[in-house]
Model the fold of this input.
Amino acid sequence: MLPNQDFLRQLEKIHDSNQRTLKDMFRNEIRGSFLVEIKSRVEKSIAPFITQLYDFSFSDEVALTGGDNYIEYEMAKTIVGVHHANTVFLTKEERSSKEKNDEYKNELSKQVSELMRIRRYSGAFFRNKTFIQGERYIYYPVPYMLFAMCTRMNEILMQHSVKHNYVYWMSLIMNKSMAALTLLEDQFLDSAYMPCRTVIEMFIKLMLFKNEPELLDEGSRFAAFDLDKTCCSQSYSDEFNEAFAQRKSRSFTNKVDFLHYGFVDAIEGYHDIVRQRPYSINGIIEYLEEKADDEEIALFERLKAFYNMCHGYIHGNVFTAKYPLLHYFEISLILGEIVPRVYSMVCDEATVEETIFGWDILDRFSNEFALLKKQYGARSTENFEKELAKMRTTGGIHK
Done:
């Protein structure tokens, strides 16, 4: 039986109305005809598995909450985010040239379609309205995929009941990474450096425990000291005070740092390698680098620089930062070095595939991360001013 022609015409009117509305909503962010063209391509691409991405069933819960099926709106936000990420630091003419290039249109459509495939781990959690309006960095490919990896990690740890001692540290990294990405989503860019610094600390400790597995019990003992001091008694326990009195670095008198890193005393030969500030994250990095290969040393050096940078931001004031894009770069770079590595570890511990719905997220992430690092390498006052001018042209906010 053929569909009623009046019904089909009504559907066409609704579709045309939605297209006009989206063009108007995003008129300050992207050329309307380009948005609609890419959206049409993405719709065709994801059509075979659309029911896997969105729940079209109706229930009392959906009636009360409205559900999350803002398909066209979410698709448009993703298109805008990916396109903006691809064209950072490009001139207006270069950006326009890309928008006319069929090869680029195909690549952009593919990027957006791939992200939509994992939206249940990312886009489905994002707000329709953020606290502070601004560039939607969370829809840029790198943060989008980092968010997906974190939520997938949480799912794996919940479903597979992974009980290995490393899981405690992996869970902390996942938790704080999610906190940083959520702050990025809501435009609280300056506040994201605190959880980022914690992510670095936890990752360096995890690397140490991976290298020195016999140290895990001592690490857990000091974590218990920290928990008791911070959340329970508000004072140092007798057991901790005894450990502090017997510390190997007698010249070191800071109890707080010993509380966080005193477990290193259990490592044979640690203090022979680390002479300066042994009870610190930089001390642990120095120890790890002694046994690391060139690639690992390069990673540790990057993390050390990021850690010191976070420390500077936390004790400074970046609320009135002139270039929000710089903070997008820095937060994405920090988490981009750590989250994929921990995601791979979690999958390995749980013996599950790293792919999400059959899609190799780590492989795709490496490509997007390479572009981000290239763009970061091109940062300059001149380029940041160009990006700032774009925001001023559009009123500085996205509706």
